[in-house]
Backbone:
């Protein structure tokens, strides 16, 4: 072994959600949107001039920042854009969590939170959700180096009320609180209005779910101007030009089509409620979801076995081999047709296995 | 001031090279390629289906990794891809420079090297170039935590011979040596063949210069499989999906068009030599450049004054307010027509100022 080996940062390898590319698959495993991006995005893509690719993109990402500022009724100086919300969140960790005290997040939550903490040597405590998979707000009143949680939570889909979020933020004036709203557009109330009242709050969203643009890698943060400036300072010192020319323009076009955005979100919510009802009729249990997925279990079904059976039929869902949730499956909401196929298979499986 | 202020990472703000958007400007300030990307890139862009943007990109970036592996005659497992070479280099710092000992780089070099060191709390020593702006290889034989330098160097354009590079790499078996070949395709010899012999060498290149795709944000590293695996582990733990679907495909199309790549590089080299000759005839001095820029000074001209005069005519070049190089201008090589305009203005300026 060479001596340089000892100076390598060794991380716990993270396995990203599978991206299968089979024909006729039903892909319900990474919470992508079943509907294409806005027709305005399609039209713009066709009209792009490849000549401009020779030039660096605007490091300020102004066209997209302006579109987001207008949509969310904040100043452009209150918007930070990154390469997906993973990039935005990692930049937040690097920028805001430097106290040496443990940061706090739920025990069942987005799987990157502890990964980034380990990557940047930030201590952390994961706080157990209660038996209904809800955040216990009082747990977050202890001394800490920062707070982060998704709303709705992932992979549970459970909402934390805006009143509870405000309590958590108000109890932590000396650290930055990040609300990760990756799934906010499927029925939850955003904490963005609270940023006027609390200077320690930052809200992060993504284009990967409700805006049907996981393939374009766009995430953003909204907060007060000072926090956004600090984030941009770190970003510029890391890589000044992150969002490429194509994504920047397509992202702005997506934000400008509010009607399409509302329409697809409405469709997904309707499909979710319909799927939930049918699954419950089959004996499945799940928390009330405010996201574009359902987190399901069945008292008589082994989740891992069902996962494998679904896979054999080219239906992909997500399983987490983690304490407390190791008999649950996370099922992304697809189109009605896709969910009908999924439900039909589940019925068939239960009949075959004599489960009723 | 809130208490959270004290936990914020404060970085020395970095000012990216200006991206002016004036009409009829001659943009010779950020080393972009004056020629558009390959016609194959243009054709592919027109044919892309926006529907696929709803899906995450392939986290392995396989289509692009495979194209690069084929082009550079290495295994796909020896190629790492990032969001521009800045992203690749920053990932290299985070992954490889953890010994606590100072890393080494030239005093006059790419301005991000010390920025990343500061960002990640990595100690560093900058080693003076000699009076001809050449790297003194013996300086790099001292105990250190890693080595990084560009070849050719920026903003000087000066080449370090492959023999000298091999000496530096061979003298540093216990640390990782990074050769940053952002400008390699304009007349230098790449160190990529050395990676078979030295397991501590990693070579980084970019699509922003010779491949006319600064706007797509693609950089890559080539090294032995172990180094590439470590880089990918860190990348996956940070953000699994960084290269978006569009850039990935366009990048692969660019790599596959070797003829166009050779042709544009040849044109730029010819324009560089022609421009150099004419500038020298006007009394300008400059090191021999193996890049797509010239680093010029004139014993009778104040660089800052000339910079301002050029700017008034909508001609943008780059100035660095740093010791030893504060009377020099870095001039990107544009088309012959652009360089003729630049030269015509220089002549006019010298006449007006009575410099001969």
Residues:
């Amino acid at each position: 072994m060479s001596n340089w080996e000892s100076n390598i940062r060794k991380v716990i390898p993270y396995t990203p959600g599978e991206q299968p590319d089979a024909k006729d698959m039903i892909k319900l495993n990474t919470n992508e949107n079943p509907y294409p991006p806005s027709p305005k995005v399609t039209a713009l893509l066709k009209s792009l001039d490849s000549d401009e690719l020779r030039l660096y993109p605007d490091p300020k990402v102004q066209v997209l920042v302006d579109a987001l500022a207008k949509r969310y009724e904040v100043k452009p100086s209150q918007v930070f854009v990154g390469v997906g919300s993973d990039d935005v969140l990692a930049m937040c960790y690097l920028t805001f969590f430097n106290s040496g005290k443990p940061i706090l997040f739920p025990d069942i939550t987005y799987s990157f939170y502890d990964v980034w903490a380990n990557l940047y040597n930030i201590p952390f405590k994961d706080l157990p959700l209660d038996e209904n998979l809800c955040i216990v707000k009082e747990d977050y009143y202890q001394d800490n180096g920062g707070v982060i949680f998704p709303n709705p939570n992932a992979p549970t889909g459970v909402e934390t009320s805006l009143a509870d979020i405000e309590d958590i933020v108000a109890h932590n004036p000396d650290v930055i609180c990040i609300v990760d709203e990756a799934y906010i557009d499927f029925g939850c109330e955003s904490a963005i209005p609270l940023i006027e009242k609390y200077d320690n709050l930052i809200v992060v969203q993504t284009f990967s779910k409700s805006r049907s643009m996981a393939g374009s890698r766009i995430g953003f943060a909204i907060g007060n101007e000072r926090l956004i400036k600090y984030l941009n300072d770190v970003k510029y010192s890391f890589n000044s030009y992150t969002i490429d020319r194509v994504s920047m323009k397509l992202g702005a076009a997506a934000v400008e089509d509010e009607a399409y955005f509302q329409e697809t979100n409405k469709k997904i919510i309707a499909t979710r409620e319909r799927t939930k009802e049918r699954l419950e009729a089959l004996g499945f249990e799940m928390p009330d979801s405010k996201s574009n997925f359902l987190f399901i279990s069945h008292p008589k079904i082994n989740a891992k076995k069902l996962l494998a059976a679904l896979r054999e039929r080219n239906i992909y869902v997500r399983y987490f081999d983690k304490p407390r949730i190791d008999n649950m499956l996370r099922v992304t909401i697809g189109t009605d047709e896709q969910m009908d196929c999924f439900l039909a298979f589940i019925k068939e499986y239960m009949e075959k296995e004599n489960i009723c």
Q: What stands out?
A: The CA atoms of residues 62 and 76 of chain A lie 8 Å apart.
